[in-house]
Specification:
Structural class: mainly alpha
Order of helices and strands: HHHHHHHHHHHHHHH
Radius of gyration: 25 Å
Strand content: under 5%
CATH superfamily of the largest domain: MetI-like
Helix content: over 70%
CATH class of the largest domain: Mainly Alpha
Number of domains: 2
Length: 329
C-alpha cells in the first residue's frame, strides 16, 4: 500500500507539472493584454510613482512574461513552490490571504450539501432498486431526472421567488442581514447560517439526481447477482441481505463518485455563490476571472488541480478498504 501510494503521488506531481504548464501557456497567450491593462491601471492611480512602461516592465518580470513561455513558467513555478503566489489584482491583497478569507465559506456550504446529498440520494436510490417498477421506483426516477435536468440558475431563481419574494423567509442574496452588527456572536452565526439555506437547497437539488440514479443502477445490478439469490434461498433475512451483502458491494462503485467530490468541498460553487452573493472561493474566482486577476486565477487553478488528483488517489485507496478483493500493488 505504501509503495503504491508513493508511486501515485509521484505520478500526480508529474501530471500537475504539465497541467499547470498548459494553463500557463493559455494565460501567456491571452489576446486581451491583461498585463498591459493592469499596468495602465496602476500607472493611472492617484499618487502613482511609476509610469505605464515601468509598471509593465515590473509585471512582466514578476510573472516571467519577459522570458518566454518556458522560462516564464519556471519563474512562476519557482515562486509557487516557495509559497510566493503574489498579490491579487482584483482584491489588492496577497492571493493566499484572499483564499483564506473565502475558502471556509465554500467548504461549509459544500460539506453541508455533501452530507444532505448522501443522506437523501443513497437511501432513495436503494429503495427504488428494492421496489423496482413500483410507484416508488417511478416517482424516484422522475424526481432524479427533474433534478438532473434543472440548471442551477433556474433552481436559484425559483427558490428566491418562492422563499424570499412570496414568503419573505430569507433575504434575496448576501451573507448578512440588516441588523447583523447588533447581534450577539451566536446570533451572527445563526444569521449567516440562515443566508446559507437557499444556496444549500440549490446545491442539494441539482446534485441528488445523479447520485440517486447511480445508486439505483448499481443496486439493481448487485441484487440480481447469484450470491444474493443464494443468500435469499438460504433464508437470510431480507434486511441482512440488503444492508450487509448488497449495499457493501453497491458502495464500491460509489466510492469513485464520492471520492471525486473532494474538489467540490473546497473549490466552491461558482454559479450558486455568484447568484446568492456568497463570498466564497467560487465567487472570488469568478470575480477574479472577470477582472483578469492572473495571480489569483493561477493559484485557484493549481489548487483545483491538486484537489482533483488527491480525490482520484483517495478513491483508489478506498477500494481496498471497502473491497478486500482489491489489492493495490
Amino acid at each position: 500500500m505504501l509503495k503504491y501510494t508513493v508511486k501515485r503521488l509521484l505520478y500526480s506531481v508529474l501530471i500537475l507539472f504539465f497541467v499547470m504548464f498548459i494553463i500557463y501557456i493559455l494565460m501567456y497567450n491571452m489576446p486581451s493584454g491583461y498585463v498591459e491593462t493592469k499596468a495602465r491601471e496602476l500607472a493611472s492611480r492617484p499618487g502613482a510613482t511609476k509610469s505605464y512602461a515601468e509598471w509593465l516592465e515590473d509585471l512582466n518580470a514578476q510573472y516571467g512574461m519577459d522570458k518566454g513561455v518556458v522560462g516564464g513558467y519556471f519563474v512562476w513555478l519557482g515562486n509557487a513552490v516557495r509559497g510566493n503566489w503574489g498579490d491579487s489584482w482584483a482584491w489588492t491583497i496577497p492571493v493566499t490571504q484572499e483564499f483564506h478569507n473565502t475558502v471556509w465559506y465554500s467548504f461549509a456550504l459544500g460539506f453541508a450539501s455533501f452530507i444532505f446529498e448522501i443522506l437523501i440520494a443513497i437511501p432513495l436510490g436503494i429503495t427504488a432498486a428494492r421496489k423496482q417498477y413500483s410507484f416508488t421506483d417511478y416517482f424516484t426516477t422522475v424526481v432524479a431526472m427533474v433534478c438532473i435536468s434543472m440548471p442551477t440558475f433556474f433552481v436559484a431563481t425559483v427558490l428566491k421567488y418562492v422563499l424570499s419574494v412570496k414568503l419573505g423567509w430569507f433575504d434575496l442574496s448576501g451573507m448578512q442581514g440588516r441588523d447583523y452588527m447588533t447581534l450577539t456572536q451566536f446570533g451572527k452565526i445563526l444569521d449567516v447560517a440562515k443566508h446559507f439555506v437557499m444556496p444549500l437547497i440549490t446545491l442539494v437539488i441539482i446534485s441528488i439526481g445523479g447520485l440517486m440514479r447511480y445508486t439505483r443502477t448499481n443496486m439493481l445490478e448487485v441484487l440480481n447477482a447469484d450470491y444474493i439469490r443464494t443468500a435469499r434461498a438460504k433464508g437470510v433475512p431480507e434486511k441482512t441481505v440488503i444492508n450487509k451483502h448488497a449495499f457493501r458491494n453497491t458502495f464500491i462503485p460509489l466510492v469513485t463518485m464520492l471520492g471525486g467530490t473532494l474538489p467540490g468541498l473546497f473549490s466552491g460553487a461558482l454559479i450558486t455563490e455568484t447568484l446568492f452573493s456568497i463570498r466564497g472561493i467560487g465567487y472570488a474566482s469568478y470575480t477574479s476571472m472577470t477582472q483578469a486577476d492572473i495571480p489569483f486565477i493561477m493559484f485557484y487553478l493549481a489548487f483545483i488541480s491538486i484537489l482533483t488528483l488527491l480525490g482520484n488517489l483517495i478513491s483508489d485507496l478506498l477500494y481496498a478498504a471497502v473491497d478486500p478483493r482489491v489489492r493495490l500493488s
